[in-house]
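User: quick one, fold this
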Amino acid sequence: MASETKAQRVERIKSEKDGLDVLDDIARYAQSGEAIDLEDIDRFKWYGLYTQNKNLQGPEDETLYFMLRVKVERGYLNREQLTEIGKISKELARDTADLTTRQDIQFHWIKVTDLPQIFDRLAAVGLSTIEAAGDCPRNIVCCPVNGIDKDQVEDVRDLVDALNDLYRENRAFSNLPRKFKVGVSGCSKHCLSHEVQDLTFTAVKRQNGGIEFSVSVGGGQASNRRIADHIGYVKRKDVVAIAESVAGIYRDYGRRDNRLKARLGHLIDDWGVERFVNELEKDSGVTFDGYDGVAFTPYPRRSHFGIFESTKVGYNTIGYAITSGRIGGERLLLLGDILKFYGAEGIALTTTQNIVVQGVPAEVTKAFTETLEAALGLEANPSVFEARTLACTGLNFCKFAVSETKNLAIEVVAYLKNRFPDFSEPISISINGCPNACAHPHIVDLGFVGAIVKRDEEKFKGFDLIVGGHLEGEQSRFAVKTGIKVTPDEVAPLIESLIEEYEQSHSCDFGNFLLEKYRYEPTISTAS
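Assistant:
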């Protein structure tokens, strides 16, 4: 009898037991201590769980550790939630806590025996891990200052809540061909990167002065590297119906025979945009207004750093950079204490692994920023390197990674910040442990993708360099290969040399400089 393909195995596992039905099994494993069935481990993803790489695990330690992803709806954590996340990190996750590009928080070193307690503690403060992973709708991303930003196009918080309510634990959508990533944007800076989401609703002010939503579908990275198609405008009242129909069409027609061809973008490529839109209009009962183009903010300017006034009179909002998203439980607890002391309301997570502190009373803003810089090293006006450097989970914890990333990103940022203290162009950098693109290397200026590097017949863990990625609506482009491979200790010197060369060039844009350099010059195999 022929063995199952990966796709056949996953589809069988999901058909035999829905991922949402594994919660009782988690409780049983936690209590009994019995070995966990490998097929249940796959279903654990529906509760935000992945088995952890053993890279940092001693040979005598046979414990099965997990990464646990907490879904933060609207990306917002109040002080109580922030403090509880910090406590769980310190007590049960060895002080680990990382911010993700979907406004989630990830713990490491989690034991199955601790999961019931963790789930209860999260639920007590209104948080959950349900469907933070798995073949289902993932956390719906939104602007971290939506609803309090004076420059926003539209307050869409109610729509984010409505879509969360639509998808949350809905068994009609708990078995999709693969993950399904949705965003709702009312942001004037288009900070969600809608071009690489499966489905995004972007608030747009039309020529008649009304607000409608541009719908974009089929974006993605890694195996689904594709810029989303804008398929037209819909009214606010139609957003939920469209979201329900897109998920349903994807569920029913997306490929299930090949995991690498199973994303929504692949279905749109197979059908063509016209057929997809026709099917969507038929299923939803909504007719789209034709898409006539929108001017989108260039990727380097899609951020919310610094101090700005909230729409709530007498309060400010402050954006901070968290290099590589690594923050940890101790820092979260200290941050919570500082927020409480100054009467600030909470924090919002961004899709670039950073944070925005919300509700800081205007009269204490100066003291607040000084305290946060002294206690946590966070600056309200971060350097360009701190602000735009992403990193995935990396080799220490991820089983797919070839190379380590988080600590390297922190080291690279410190090196560049010291070397170029006055450099102001918004360079974007992404350091990834493998080709799966979790930290978005294809849309930044400098993308480092985990790879094996050869030096004099010796092999090292390192990176391929890709360059020139950019998002700006129809002018978007993915990064191109350079042929350069670097070891971890060569990453910072390579970037240094590129910045030096750029400063001596006549180019006025770093991304274009990189494209010209690597598209028209012969590529080389090493950084030396």
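User: anything notable?
Assistant: The radius of gyration is 23 Å.
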